[in-house]
Amino acid sequence: MAEPRTLGVVGAGQMGAGIAQVAAAAGLDVLLHDRQRRFIDKGVETIASSLKRLESKGTIRADAVREVLARVRPVEAIDGLKACDVVVEAVNETFDLKAQIFARLDALCRGEAILASNTSSLSITRLAAGNSRPDRVIGMHFMNPVPLMALVEIVAGQATSKATLEATRALAVRLGKTPVVSQDLPGFISNRVLMPLLNEAMFALYEGVGTRDDIDTVMTLGMRHPMGALRLADFIGLDTCLAIMEVLHEGFGDPKYRPCPLLRRMVDAGQLGKKSGRGFYDYGTGDA
Fold first, then answer.
1. Catalytic residue at 120?
2. Which regions of the chain does DSSP assign to beta strands (E)?
3. Residue 118 and residue 177 share a domain
4. From the candidates 117, 118, 161, 191, which is the catalytic residue?
5. Tell me: the pLDDT tens digits for 112-150?
6. CA–CA distance, 231 with 115 (Å, rounded to integer)
7. What is the mean predicted confidence (pLDDT) over 217-222?
8. Is 153 annotated in the active site?
9. Could you say which of 6, 76, 140, 271 is the most buried, measured as most Cβ atoms within 10 Å of its Cβ?
10. Residue 226 CA from chain centroid, whole number
11. How many domains, the chain?
């Protein structure tokens, strides 16, 4: 497969903006799409702010900041992605939404284009099943925040070709990332290990084993984790944590993956973590 020149990103939120940034920094032309122009503009602002922070730390030059931003082009209609060599979907962790986007991209994009999903837990095989090019559908799970985290988890579906896998691995390296390959099983490697840990921390709080601060202090000082489990869940998004736990629970049918009732209750209350202003910590009153 030829080296890609143009990369499309569907979803201009935190993950999509981060993917667009690292792709543009690697010299790719990037087309950034979302369902409304205001979301795209916010994504571009996120990229600009991230680059400015890197510039202030001396990681990138001012002229390079301008060059990277110039490579990111807002695209209001998804049809504008039809000429892309690779398209990465980075929308909410909802199978039906992702499947609709993949069906649209399949109809639009050239037959040789690779369609990748940034899903953190959903089956790549299922996403590819309704596609005319299942051999070119793959998972490309970036870590958050994308510009700073070195890992990309690559997930091949049942029909993904070896050529697509190797081209995606090469793209990850080009983006400055370290790729690891996971089998297409619920949660892949990363969230099959991480999410039960976070869920168990929530059970410890729910059952009164310890306070929020005590639980997180055990993880940071006792386990040398850079962030406590409950705070990390807030940063990931409690709705995302719940969605992944439900995928694990349904996919394996094992009660050890049962989502904590406290997690479900908080999501029902709209307490989603940092993005909503409140989760296990309060991000609007300084208690963060």
1. yes
2. 6-10, 29-33, 72-75, 86-89, 114-117, 137-142, 151-156, 178-182
3. yes
4. 191
5. 999 999 999 999 999 999 899 999 999 999 999 999 999
6. 33
7. 98
8. yes
9. 140
10. 20
11. 2
Catalytic annotation present for 121: no
The catalytically annotated residue of 120, 161, 182, 276 is: 120
Q: Exposed (0-12), middle (13-18) or buried (19+): which is 183, by Cβ within 10 Å?
A: exposed
Q: Which two tokens stand for residue 236?
A: 């990931």
Q: What is the CATH number of the domain that holds 222?
A: 1.10.1040.10
Q: Contact 127/102 with Cβ under 8 angstroms? A: yes
**Tokens 């909503």 belong to which residue?**
276
Q: State the Cα–Cα distance between residues 277 and 272, nearest whole angstrom.
A: 8
Bridging pattern class, strands 114-117 and 137-142:
parallel
Question: Where would I find the beta strands (DSSP E) of 106-206?
Answer: 114-117, 137-142, 151-156, 178-182
* Cis check: omega of the bond before 196, within 30 degrees of 0: no
Side chain identity at residue 220, one-letter code: T
Q: Which helix or strand (DSSP H or E) is residue 257 part of?
A: none
Yes or no: say if 204 and 179 are a contact pair by the CB < 8 Å rule. Answer: no
Q: Is 191 a catalytic residue?
A: yes
Write down the residue that tokens 């609007």 correspond to. Answer: 284
What is the model's pTM? 0.91
- CA atoms lying within 13 Å on the CB side of residue 7: 29
Rounded Cα distance, 154 and 159, in Å: 14
**Domain housing 262:** 191-276
Q: Which of 33, 89, 153, 276 does the annotation list as catalytic? A: 153
